Amino acid sequence: MNLTESAASQRSAESEDRGPTGVRARVAAVGDLMGLTIVSLWPTALTFFAGLLATLGVWMLAETYPRSERTRTLLTVANGMRQVLEVRLNDHLRGLQLAADVWPRFSAADAADWKATAQMFLQQHSGFVVVALVPPAAVAAAVPGDGGEAPGAGGEPLPLFDESAAEARPNVLVARTQGVAGWLVGAELGERLRAARQSAMDEQRPSIDGPFTSQSGQSFYQLVLPLEAGAAPEGAGRPQAGLLCAVLQPAPLLESLISELASGYFLAVHDDGALVYTQGTPPRPQPSAEGAEPADDETVELPIRLLMAKTWTLEMARPDLSELPPMFSLGRLVLTGGLIFSLLLAGVVYLGQVARVRARALVIANRELRSQIVSTAVAEGRVRRINESLEARVAERTRALDEVVTELETFNYSVSHDLRSPIGAIVNFTSILSEDYKDRLDEAGLDILRRVAGCAQNAVTMMDGLLTFSHIGQQALTPGTVETRPLVEAAVEEVLAAHPGPRPDVSIGALPSVTADPTMLRTVWTNLLSNAVKFSETTPEPSIEIGSQSSPDEDIFFVRDNGVGFDMKHAARLFNVFEQLHPTPRSKGHGVGLAIVSRIVRRHGGRVWAQAAPGKGATFYFAIPRQAA
Amino acid sequence: MNATAEILMVEDNEDDIAVALWAFSKHNLQGRVEVVRDGQQALDRVLAQPLGQIKVILLDLRMPRVDGREVLRRLRADERTRTVPVVVISSSSHADDIAACYRLGANSYVCKRYSTARAGEYLIDVVHYWVDLNRIPESPGQDQK
């Protein structure tokens, strides 16, 4: 299923259940519920690649961020450094300038005062190593303190500071820091220093010159500040005008300022190409002229503007970080984390899709289930209603049937009972007639009278049979254990006593006891025996056999005679009321004997049947269930 | 009212009465029989008048007005007629009827018989037994248990 298909199936699932897409959605739903969830892999893959892209972006940011951040930091540090250097250097210079401005106004100052003041200045302003007060006459001297003597012949190095020479000329006042015994400079440098003093003197303008390098390698600057002339009163050997000349050594000054600010950075101070001061190691080997430019963001150069239009250049470089171990690389961390995150995100998207598909499948399945439940409930309700109506109808029919049966029984009883009296009266009156008037009737008349009485008598007998039959239907069963043999023997005696004909040979076999109503069972036996006697009376040697058979469920009894028998095709009618298979004299039976037998046995849950052939006797069976109640 | 009657026959069926009377006359018993036509008449005869010589009551069950069972119940409830023999003569052979009559105190129960041999002969046997052979206390009440 791709994206469009899933959208279509969703739409169809929401709008209608029928149609091919609905079927497909249902198939998918069934498949989903069986655990075969099929979802598109596109969203998952897209999510994964989007995550990878985002990771790459973050990685690139992470890669560039520290560089720019370090560059920014470098700039900040360098700017701070520049400002500090500018302020402090200018402070020094201003201090010197202040001294130059103020000094000539002290009227009472002498050489000792100047020395003390100059020493204090030197202590407060590191980097200044010498301060000299030079009268105009000595300005031209090559070296402060050499008293205007001619430079040493042959280029001999001269001491820059010669205290003894200065002492010799009291008009030059020199103060110097401790340990500065005097540097040797060449004649050429000495001349340049003197020319700078002369120029400043001439132009009455402060100047700073340098850097110079002494022969012992000391780098220094010469600051010259002209002093106002003629303003002070004439004193004893004290210069009123001239120069304030100072030697500034930048290395210790810068070192004292920088060391506490930018440790770890590479730092250099240039003065117009000349290296004034350097600290740390350059970040990489200095590129050659043809080599690659050093990265802009790694080195920064800033101007330091000093008084007297002097400009230094501050060069700074950040510490070299390229030697950090790669395992701490932020980029690698970002890449790894981003990959894992993308995988997780893709997994979440996949699971979300699966959940969505399953939820849809569940919705469909639920709908199907609900409709099935509804239809099942409807069907159940229909079945229940049918059942209820069926039960009601059955009960109604049963009740109606019971009523009919009861009516029939009542009708049977009352008809039999009510007819009995008038028909009996006929019997009686024919009897009276034949007795009282037999003299007045001829033989034919008496015969007719006898026939009338016989018919009426038969009718009464049949009524009695019907009444008995009716009683058996209505009488309640009172079952008990019945010893069959004595009951049968008594029945045989009763039947034979009532029978006027020849006495048949009766043999009685083994008879088990049964559970039955004793009175009714006796009726069964008397009827069967009576039948047997009746239908075997014309046989030359009548015999009756009584016996039993046993089966697991029931006790089967039989009464067998060797009488006239009957055709088995009439067997079905045998147990009906008033069924007579033989034209026997009516007085011999009421026609309901076998019907009564059948009724009693059936009421005990048993069955009756017969086996016979014409002229070969008949056997009547009846079976009583073992557990019959 | 027959003061000398020994047999009181309670029967509403004229045919049965005719047959019975014919049988009684054959045996010269007609003078000893008194016939009433329903239960109310029987009660009037037995309870409202002196009992006389009546030795047996032949009682039909199905009768208009007061039926045989009711007659039997009232006879047995009355002190004077408690011991008078009552023979129920009925066309019913129903076991329930028979049992009910004996419970009410009938002395005998005889189904009406219709015989081509001699009509009503069974009544002669009944009467012979109860009138000539059977003995009851002469004076009811003196010999109460």
The percent range for strand residues of chain A is 15-25%
Mean pLDDT of chain B: 86
Distance between the termini of chain A: 73 Å
Quantity of strands of chain B, as a count: 5
Query: Any idea what the CATH architecture of chain B is?
Result: 3-Layer(aba) Sandwich
Helix content of chain B: 25-40%
- Form type of chain A: rod-shaped
- What is the number of beta strands of chain A? 18
What structural class do you assign from the helix and strand content of chain A?
Answer: alpha+beta
Q: What is the largest interface, and how many residues per chain?
A: A-B, 25 and 20 residues
Task: Report the sheet with the most strands of chain B, covering strand number, pairing sense and barrel closure.
Answer: 5 strands, parallel
Overall mean pLDDT of chain A stands at 77
**CATH class annotation of chain B:** Alpha Beta
Defining key terms:
heterodimer; A: 629 residues; alpha+beta; five-stranded antiparallel beta sheet; five-stranded mixed beta sheet; 12 helices; 18 strands; 50% helix; 17% strand; disordered N terminus; B: 145 residues; alpha/beta; Rossmann fold; 5 helices; 37% helix
3D architecture notes:
The complex is a heterodimer of chains A (629) and B (145). Chain A is 50% helix and 17% strand. The N terminus of chain A is likely disordered. Chain A contains twelve helices and 18 strands. Chain A has a five-stranded antiparallel beta sheet, with helices on both faces. Chain A has a five-stranded mixed beta sheet with strand order 13-15-16-18-17. In chain A, strands 9-8-11-10 form a four-stranded antiparallel beta sheet, covered by helices on one side. Chain B is of the alpha/beta class. Chain B is built from five helices and five strands. Chain B has a five-stranded parallel beta sheet, with helices on both faces. Chain B starts with 6 loop residues before the first strand and ends in a 12-residue tail after the last helix. Chains A and B meet through α8 and α9 of A and α1 of B.
